[in-house]
Design brief:
By secondary structure, this protein is α/β, with parallel strands linked by helices. 32% of the residues lie in helices and 22% in strands. The model has no long low-confidence stretch (mean pLDDT 92). It binds zinc ion (2 copies) and fe (iii) ion. The site of one zinc ion (ZN) has 8 residues, from helix 4.
């Protein structure tokens, strides 16, 4: 006696070969009926033997395509319909498309085999893809996911491609970006004026030769442009740094394959897994001695950010090149990555010698993601290609129709609907008009695709953030959330932590509720709201925001707090007296010298005082170099940080630490040991403060916890003392996680006034 059931699946199930998977599974179990995409996900009706139907449901869960996510699977019994066969039906288009969009997926092993198979019709074709791999998020204009709603709509499939597309047994069945040399996009190599020098395969091969000759090539890839340059050639890297105005910030590298990566870097099993995963991020790896890549790619850095090719285009270039390249985003300094070839000609002119371009439009810019392994876990430092816009699913009730606009640096935005919280790709620092436009475009495209007509918009409490101003100027119901509270909620959301929670939010700067600069915060969170329980002792920050590059100003503020004018005797001759006179005046008269309790700034000041750096080229550079000094050392030594309780607040007083650092520096103690002692004192202070506050669940967050030594040792120290410890993994601990935290905060408290 046959039965008929209807299965409704909600989740990330479109565009990953889910329907062909269902089709094959149904056929193998001799079931009749159909499968179809809906705005919610996938709907299946199946008729057949009861045991087979049960097996069907089990296997949907256990054998589903690797990157699909089933959020909800609902079955209902229906009267028999006597289906004749099992078929894939056309998408239904009603209701709201709140289904999940997929990220761009790295080339699968089968496609890779084809592009290097001389007999295959896709031999060396750079746009080869299938339902298991290829572009998604970067080409999707709207949902549901179908070719007509992607930037592939301009390309008409040839007979052979259409045959694959229509054949349910084929790996390219309904592969929306399906293409081949006959019908798909193609490459061209342009000179600086946009003249076509070569096309198709020759464009790739000439680019390879130019790279070998020391030229800089702007390469249009999946989510935007890269600059490619020979990673073994310090001269071309130097030239790229000057032209791109990026003096010291590390460049990412692309290696031909995992074997070549292993020759230059230590690669653990977990790191290898991440490197070759479908998400294929840049992974931070420890350089080996004798590493072939030029030191100028990542000066003074023990790590290299490395990825392997993730599109056929990159695979082909790297196969011919055989050596690593610098593969840094195609932009000027902190501007957003460039996505259009004609725009590239003007924006990237003066940087690139040639332009390797193609005619598949990029609908959204998507940078490379950056990740690393911390205590055997993947930790994402920049969440973009391969991850965005996968939702963070939380158990907490979701608010509908909400946008959060994020912070100021490393900006991302997020929206929330019934399916989850969707975080945008990395947008960047909102410092230039280009970034601001990219920020607005991302909001527009995100709200369009998810059909969000926001009831509420959430921003940071900082009144001067461009993102906050944008929210207030463009929307009615705007709620602002304190910066560090957002950081903490990003951890709460991705780990589903139960309340109460002690958040340790340490970063460079955030606007505090008392209008001072916060950044070394311990904040308790419960069902009623939040309260600040402890913070680093404050010091003046002469020059305000400018201090994060001019770290001597920060050091001055820190020293002044303890020694007053006496500091001139303590650290003589570090800069002209004149400048210091000005700073002293500013601090004394309280001119543009906001008090700050920032841990990031404390790192900067210590880096300056110990002589690690005099200035920083980018935020966090000095702190990073201080961290790198801890490499390979082991010691429990530390300085003293006193915990002083006043009323309901604990202040972490770093005065003895500062005196200790100065003393050790004067005595020429090895810098590495000073750095280690400094790090250990912070770890100890975190553990002791947590013990005093005494909340079981501790969330570590904020940019400072990108510091591996600080993060790992804080986790260890807290765990040893019986705490449950949580930290950011899915979203960055830096301000890239703020947008998630803002929405999570709102879904937690709703309209309740906190
Ligand atoms: Zn494939
Ligand atoms: Zn074709
Ligand atoms: Fe922050």
């Amino acid at each position: 006696m046959p039965h008929r059931i209807k299965i409704s699946i909600k989740g990330a199930v479109q565009g990953v070969g889910f329907r062909p998977f269902i089709y094959k599974l149904a056929k193998s179990l001799n079931l009749k009926g159909y499968v179809s995409n809906t705005n919610e996900g996938v709907v299946i009706e199946a008729e057949g033997n009861e045991n087979f139907l049960q097996e069907f449901i089990l296997k949907i869960n256990s054998e589903k395509p690797p990157i699909s996510i089933i959020q909800k699977l609902k079955t209902e019994k229906l009267p028999l319909n006597n289906f004749r066969e099992f078929e894939i039906r056309k998408s239904r288009l009603k209701g709201y498309p709140d289904t999940i969009m997929f990220p761009d997926i790295a080339t699968c092993p089968e496609c890779l085999k084809e592009i290097f198979d001389k007999k295959n019709r896709r031999y060396l074709y750079p746009f080869t893809n299938c339902t298991n791999c290829g572009p998604r998020y970067s080409i999707i204009e709207s949902l549901p996911y179908d070719r007509a709603r992607t930037t592939m709509k301009a390309f008409q499939m040839c007979g052979e491609c259409k045959g694959e597309y229509d054949d349910p047994t084929n790996r390219r069945f309904h592969a929306q970006p399906n293409a081949c040399p006959v019908c798909g996009p193609h490459m061209e190599l342009w000179d600086k004026k946009g003249n076509v020098i070569e096309s198709h395969l020759n464009a790739l091969l000439s680019s390879v030769n130019f790279i070998k000759e020391g030229k800089i090539i702007a390469v249009k890839g999946l989510g935007g442009f890269h600059f490619f340059a020979d990673a073994l050639n310090p001269d071309v890297i130097e030239r790229l740094r000057i032209r791109k105005r990026r003096e010291e910030k590390p460049f990412a590298l692309m290696y031909p394959d995992i074997l070549s990566v292993k020759r230059d870097c230590e690669v653990s099993e977990k790191e290898e897994e991440l490197l070759i995963s479908v998400r294929c991020p840049i992974v931070l790896l420890k350089k080996k001695k004798g590493c072939s890549a030029s030191d100028t790619a990542a000066p003074k850095n023990p790590d290299l950010g490395i990825m392997i090719p993730y599109t056929p285009l990159h695979h082909i270039i790297m196969r011919y090149l055989k050596t690593p390249v610098v593969a840094t985003s195609g932009n000027l300094s902190e501007e957003p990555i460039c996505t259009d070839e004609n725009e590239a000609l003007s924006r990237l002119n003066g940087i690139a010698d040639f332009f390797l371009v193609h005619n598949r439009p990029i609908y959204r810019h998507v940078d490379d993601s950056i990740a690393r392994i911390v205590m055997n876990n993947n930790v994402i430092l920049r969440r973009s290609r391969g991850y965005a816009p996968m939702p963070v699913l939380t158990e907490n009730p979701q608010g509908k129709n909400i946008i959060s606009v994020g912070g100021h640096l490393k900006n991302t935005i997020a929206v929330s609907n019934v399916s989850g919280i969707f975080i945008s790709q990395h947008i960047g620092d909102l410092e230039s008009i280009e970034s601001y436009n990219s920020f607005r475009n991302t909001i527009r495209k995100f709200t369009e695709v998810y059909k969000i007509n926001p009831e509420t918009v959430i921003c940071d409490t900082h009144p001067d953030y461009i993102s906050s101003k944008y929210a207030k100027e463009n929307f009615k119901n705007v709620i602002s959330v304190q910066h560090h509270v957002s950081h903490i909620f990003s951890v709460i959301a991705e780990n589903d932590i139960s309340m109460p929670v002690l958040g340790v939010a340490w970063d460079g700067a955030g606007y505090g509720d008392d209008k001072t600069v916060w950044g070394g915060e311990f904040i308790a969170i419960d069902n009623m709201g939040y309260s600040r329980k402890a913070h680093l002792k404050k010091f003046p920050l002469p020059g305000g925001a400018s201090a994060f590059k001019d770290i001597y100003k920060t050091a001055f503020g820190l020293l002044y707090e303890i020694f007053g004018e006496g500091l001139f005797e303590i650290i003589p001759g570090i800069s002209g007296r004149k400048e210091y006179g000005i700073l002293a005046n500013m601090v004394k008269k309280n001119i543009n010298s906001p008090p700050c309790s920032s841990a990031g700034r404390l790192f900067d000041a210590i880096a300056f005082i110990t002589g690690v750096r005099k200035t920083a080229g980018f935020e966090g550079q000095a702190a990073m170099e201080l961290e790198f000094l801890t490499e390979g050392l082991n010691s429990e030594d530390s300085y003293d940080i006193e915990l002083k309780r006043t009323n309901d607040m604990i202040v972490l007083d770093w005065e003895n630490l500062l005196r200790g650092v100065i003393e050790d520096t004067k005595n020429n103690l090895n810098l590495k040991i000073i750095s280690l002692k400094f790090h250990n004192s912070l770890v100890n202070a975190i553990v002791r403060t947590a013990e005093k506050i005494d909340i079981q669940n501790v969330a570590l967050t904020g940019g400072c916890f990108q510091n591996k030594y600080l993060l790992e040792n804080s986790i260890r120290g807290l765990k040893e003392n019986g705490f449950n410890v949580f930290w950011n993994r899915e979203v960055p601990a830096n301000d890239g996680g703020i947008s998630l935290g803002q929405i999570a905060y709102y879904s937690y408290y709703g309209n309740k006034k906190i």
